[in-house]
Amino acid sequence: MYAKSIVDLIGNTPLVKANHLISNKNITLLLKLEGNNPGGSVKDRAAYNMIKSALDRGEINKTSKLIEATSGNTGIALAMCAKLFGLNISLVMPENSTVERVQTMEAYGAKVILTPADDGIEGSRDFAEKKVSEEGYFMLDQFGNHDNWKAHYKTTGPEIWRDTEGLVTHFVSAMGTTGTIMGTSTFLKEKNPAIQIVGAQPADNAKIPGIRKWPKAYLPKIFDIKKVDQIIEVTEQEARNMTKRLAKEEGVFAGMSSGGSVATAVKLSETMERGIIVAIVCDRGDRYLSSDLFS
To answer: Which UniProt keywords apply (predicted)?
Structure first.
């Protein structure tokens, strides 16, 4: 049996128990390893669903000029999926993004445009929107595209429910575009409204790639606070430390947003007596080797 296309390998990522991070034996912490997606991150799910849905609706075709602002993983996923469908895409990101991310996007055939680091991802978003309004580009708009969260409603949520045999009590996710937490929450709450949905958000002045505390003007349009039961703040140092612990103690090589997600899950566990927590491990650590994350 073989996959007919690489996109058939998106999703159905494994859950693995963390054996060294929580001392309470009545609490099980499960890590959902999204780095096992073919593009290396959870964003493969949303990228595929956004592009495939836009094609199905006739909003884009092979003559379309796609553009998207990204901090990295979404761009890699879009670069991979766009080329599989024969589409051209330009990806806009801050110039301080790791070289691994830029080179991976280019390897898939995307054009990468770097914007000033001081302007952050907000500056990249402004640049992309200007290209749409002035030069006829089409933006998939991961921050406002409902096909983003619907990808997780269709795949991530059902997988967690299936693989925990419906016993999951808490779900923890880093919040960037918020697509993962919105879609997974929607599905899990339909199955069991008692399941607690917990979002990881950076503490003030913390810089954790992939996790954001958005200014009001840039808050993702797909975000609905009613779908999140609790938000726990995580510091940059906590995210860094947990990322290193994941590698050294659990053999899980991941990025800093994953460290933030799991650090949040461990904080959550300290308030619980028992339960099953599922935490998203967003991507793989090899995307950060040129940074100081593991130094």
So the answer is: Amino-acid biosynthesis, Coiled coil, Cysteine biosynthesis, Pyridoxal phosphate, Transferase
Q: Write out the two tokens for 136.
A: 């006829």
pLDDT value, residue 291: 87
Rounded CA-CA distance 244/263 in Å is 11
Which of 80, 31, 54 lies closest to 249, judged by CA? 31
Q: Does 257 qualify as catalytic in the annotation?
A: yes
pLDDT above 90 covers what percent of the chain? 87
Choice among 32, 41, 43, 124 that is catalytic: 43
Cα of 262 vs its chain's centroid, Å: 14
Residue among 257, 258, 261, 269 flagged as catalytic: 257
**Is 43 among the residues known to form the active site?**
yes
CA torsion through residues 269, 273, 275, 276, sign: positive
Between helix 256-269 and helix 236-245 the angle, nearest 10°, is 90
Look up the pTM and report it. 0.94
Q: Are 279 and 31 in contact (CB under 8 A)?
A: yes
> Is 66 in contact with 88 (CB distance < 8 Å)?
yes
186 by Cβ neighbours in 10 Å (0-12 / 13-18 / 19+) ranks as middle
C-beta separation of 261 from 254 below 8 A? no
